UniProtKB/TrEMBL annotation:
The keyword Kinase applies. This is Receptor-interacting serine/threonine-protein kinase 2-like. It comes from Branchiostoma floridae (Florida lancelet). Transmembrane segments: none annotated. Residues 58-321 form the Protein kinase domain.
Amino acid sequence: MLKPKEIISPQTPNRRGYETGAVGAVGGQEADGLQSSARKYPSVTVDQKFPIIQFERLKEQSILGRGGFAYVMKARHLDWKQDVAVKCLLTRQIEGSEQEVLYSEARKLNLGSRSDHVISLLGVCLDPNFAIVMPYMENGSLAGLLRDVDVPWALRWRMAHEISLGMTFLHCQNPQILHCDLKAENVLLDGDFHVKISDFGLSKWKMRSRVVTQTSPEGSTITHAPPEYFLDINLVPTPMFDVYSFGVLLWEIITRAEPYGNAMNSALIRLAVTSGQRPDLTLIPTDREDVTSVSQLMQTCWSQTPEDRPTFQACADHLITVTSRSSKEDILQAIIDVMKARKN
Ligand code: ACK
């Protein structure tokens, strides 16, 4: 793994917020301005326009998560008067090939604006370090919500369906976008509890920029990786990798538990998963038709053989039938209940 040449402390991360009297350019200029950054990022291929956001125009509100190489903060854009989430790299100078990967992440995010269920890119900061600016998702991650609240089933099924739609969108892109780290922490929820998939396109950058949160204390996970991944170190991920992860994610949605929560270490999980074991089925309620139906889908998604797993389109077809059994009123009531529970 490449080493950063220099690690600087983040300019803003302190919980008191960013004191700035900066009079910078208005954020969001079109990024042919990338060319002016070409001196700093000489190897970047400028094949897509990104809005450039001036870091000085972002007033830090709080830190949402941090790791060795990156942190995510909530910030207010001083000109837009809008809250944003900013994923900031802590390293000032990085290897040229890695710059490419950062841009590749931003390019993928750029596509997100075309799907209702994939997080979009508002822009990138280039100075002092590279940062990705996204819309702020008021209700945080699905992992946090499941941890806090016994979410009514009507809303759980809507979220499961929307995840399948977001994943269908990513898999339908040309070239195809694989997530490779689909789990409840990477599913964000907007103010109305609609789903936005985030953190897609597992890459070297992503491994290094992992942020640690309350919901992912180790900052990485093998619980959602399929058995074939443990059996062949050279395996190139396929869409079926994500479908397997979706199976485990459905288990998280149904049980609100942590997969393999009792396992002593990750080596045991690898061994168990390769020999066909899966998250605990005894935690799945047996007295509800909708749960049984989603549980069947879940088990097909985590089939040992990748070819036996459904596509996300098929998952979406299955889940629309489950979610359409709830009325709009049921879902609105579910949202009200969740909001009340979160207040307490
Ligand atoms: O579980 P959380 O509250 O939701 O904590 C994690 C943390 O940052 C590290 O990923 C939160 N997070 C990430 N992106 C966003 C976003 N766009 N809006 C709101 N919270 C976000 C995530």
